[in-house]
Design goal:
Layout: E1 4-5, E2 14-24, E3 30-40, E4 48-51, E5 56-62, E6 65-66, E7 72-75, E8 78-81, E9 87-96, E10 106-110, E11 113-117, E12 137-146, E13 152-155, E14 158-164, E15 169-180, E16 187-190, E17 193-200, E18 206-213, H1 222-239, E19 247-253, E20 260-261, E21 266-270, H2 283-298, E22 307-308, H3 314-332, H4 335-354, E23 366-367, H5 376-409, E24 413-414, H6 416-427, H7 436-439, E25 444-453, E26 458-467, E27 481-488, E28 494-495, E29 506-509, E30 513-518, E31 526-529, E32 538-540, H8 545-554, H9 558-579, H10 587-598, H11 604-611, H12 616-620, H13 628-645, H14 647-657, H15 667-683, H16 689-701, H17 705-717, H18 723-734, H19 738-749, H20 756-763, H21 774-785, H22 788-791, H23 797-812, H24 814-825, H25 832-846, H26 853-863
Parallel strand pairs: 2-12, 18-19, 19-21, 22-24, 25-32
Antiparallel strand pairs: 1-23, 2-3, 3-9, 4-8, 5-6, 5-9, 7-8, 10-11, 11-16, 12-15, 13-16, 14-15, 17-18, 20-21, 25-26, 26-30, 27-28, 27-29, 27-31
Bound molecules: (3S)-3-amino-4-(1H-indol-3-yl)butanoic acid and zinc ion.
(3S)-3-amino-4-(1H-indol-3-yl)butanoic acid binds near residues 119, 257, 371, 374 and 815.
Amino acid sequence: PQAKYRKDYQTPDYTIDEVDLDIRLQDHQTLVSSRLTVRRQGEHNEPLRLDGEALKLINIELDGEVLSEHRFQVVNNQLQIDDVPEAFELLIITQLDPANNSALEGLYKSGGAFCTQCEAEGFRRITYYLDRPDVLAVFTTRLQADKDKYPYLLANGNKTDSGELENGQHWVSWHDPHPKPCYLFAVVAGDFDLLEDSYRTKHGRDVALQLFVDKGNLGRAEFAMRSLKAAMKWDEVRFNLVYDLDIYMIVAVDFFNMGAMENKGLNVFNAKYVLADAKTATDQDFLNVESVIGHEYFHNWTGNRITCRDWFQLSLKEGLTVFRDQEFSGDMSMRPVHRIQDVRIMRTHQFHEDSSPMAHPIRPDKVIEMNNFYTVTVYNKGAEVIRMLHSLLDEQGFQKGMQLYVERHDGQAVTCEDFVCAMEDANSTELRQFRRWYEQAGTPVLSITESYDASAERYTLHCRQHTAATPGQKKKQAFHIPLRVHFYSDSGELLKLTSDELKNDILQLTEEQQDFVFEKVKEKPVPGLLAGFSAPVKLDYEYQEKQLLTLLAYSQDPFICWDAAQQVYLQAMKKAIAAGSPVQLSQASLDALKHKLENQQSDPALVSLLLQIPSEESLSGEYDVIPVADIHRVCGELKQLLASELEKELKETYSSCHPQGAYQFAPTDIAQRMLANTCLAFLANLKNPEITALLERQFSKADNMTDELAAMQAAVHANHTSADNMLREFAAKWQSNSLVMDKWLATQASAARSSTLDSVKQLTSHGAFSWQNPNRIYSLVATFTHNLAQLHREDGEGYRWLREVIVRLNSSNPQVASRLVTALLQWRRFDEKRQTLLKQELKTLQELPDLASDLYEKVEQSLQ
Ligand code: HT7
Ligand code: ZN
């Protein structure tokens, strides 16, 4: 496989203005006739080269004349035609086998329905085309299929005509007036239940909203519809962005490699981000539906109307759209909970990626397989970069920048640079150094010390930033870092410190070393550093326990408050690992946590989050060489310690804060369930009859999935005697609901038992599992890869089994295989024995004769 480099970008030699597709859908012999209006760009004699993969070419005509074989050739997945005129019409007929398309790219069958996935480069699996995002064309699509099996025939844009044919077939045609790149093309054909609604935009356009779900699931689609209308409204109010077609369709499918896809006017969703009701979905599932529905809708402007010039610019649409969906969720409810969850993703997954062989800037420079770059770096760090711009420019300045960006670039395919320029120009500012966030990979470490001169009443923060080398980038230059700071007195009052450099609580770090001096400071303050997680950096400041407890008790910034608790836990666990002794918490820390529990009423969700200890995975991020067994030990010990020390308060909180009455998806109820279930998870470690009764009662009496699942997870994760029984009952009750059974698979894959690998292996033969469906594979196998101690077993069995799984998926679904291999790449971070075992599995993969480009890229990069 060949690498592509960002620096090599060239405008296309030809462009396509119109595409007329006629698709006759059949399981194994779908015929696609594509009529293209092609135009040469610039002066040159280059041949026309169209991308195509896994296609059977039936016919080509140029301006109505059949092309004989010597006029074209197909080499290396490209159809090449020499000596073409300035402008011409090309007709290409290809044949596809969607029923045998297990990679779920291009046109495939999901259950009984046909559907497509074209981002990033799937359209070339449907027909020969200029499959790149800077070729924008107007699409017309005619679909034909059996009417009984496929009563709904859907494509982008507006429906223009339809008709019946003999032999039970029917057809529908669609026209999308907005020029678009082919990655936004979609068709769906199937038999669904349909939920309909409408939305009137602030411009007075009535938009028909249609949500298609598998038969029998209408009741579980209502929340998604509500979320869609909320998203449409929110984008009008906060971003002044208004929908632009008369119809917006969402189809939920069971077989999908990712979360959802923003195809123009016809979103295709993984069913798990659409279907939600109290009995089968947890509070978190509801929140995920809201956020993914929002995300795909927001792409209509940030992605579809203004798209990417090339795939290196992916973060232009994804970072920005994640930022927008995060803000949407925060404005809808529980902003602090969302923010802390976003930070957790950054710290556990993105920081991990930054320290891995696949580390890349949010705008990568080199790509072999584009599918490998739909990453936490491009998405979540990309969103943090946008958030920093938002902090530096504030809401008003940021919105001015957005407005200019939309005015300038509507209908274009543009770059991250264009976005930054719009922000600069709208605010008459310069962001020269800020651009390094797009250029450099890696997580900066921000080391801060302080000094206080009581007699001069002067307080100084000494800041130093350093970013370790990442593959291909040895020396890093200083980043422009917005550091939000709050200061407290020892007794917890917010202090107003002033300095010329402090604006809106933000210090701007631009040098490798920088001091910030504050005058007239009457007492040495406790600094609340990086408030709101104002930059995607690791903070290295030696907090004393007393300072952390002040922040835990008094910080008005929920992130700082939560982080103070995390630091208390991390310090205790690291100390125990270093000393080889049991984990201990000081009485003062325990008292502080007790106090939080006793006063949980003001914010039960935050109390729930700050009680939760760092995961084994996130603790491993603290080490260059990961001490697997020690990490596993101290995490277990800390849970046990908190459970026994806080038993009384946990029990009282559990019984007082569970919402009364029937389930409601409402922020106050969600927050209470979060806290009650966190208490239960700790208590399950105590294994006394009273707790057993609590667990079993909640499991059997729950009227909602949040509580039912929480009880089962608490039992399984604490290795409680009730666990096996609950797993059995749960499976018997939910066997016919695959999305619920995914939770059952994931619960077992995340168990901290030495038998987990054996159970996981056995579960691959269970009726609830399938090697064809990514949701099943992610629930069982991907969850297992995050189970640190079980994947990294000393005997290497975890690695061996994972490699076997990857070999199997290499041929059926390389995208999924590639997501799973990530767990093996970081071999340098383990002890020698594990390094040898890991490398051996990677080498076995490397030698596979038909290794997919997705895996090739990661394995090579890791072994280099
Ligand atoms: N823009 C979408 C990306 C996507 C995707 C990419 C590769 C392979 C399959 C895929 N399915 C969806 C999703 C999004 O960010 O909204
Ligand atoms: Zn997206």
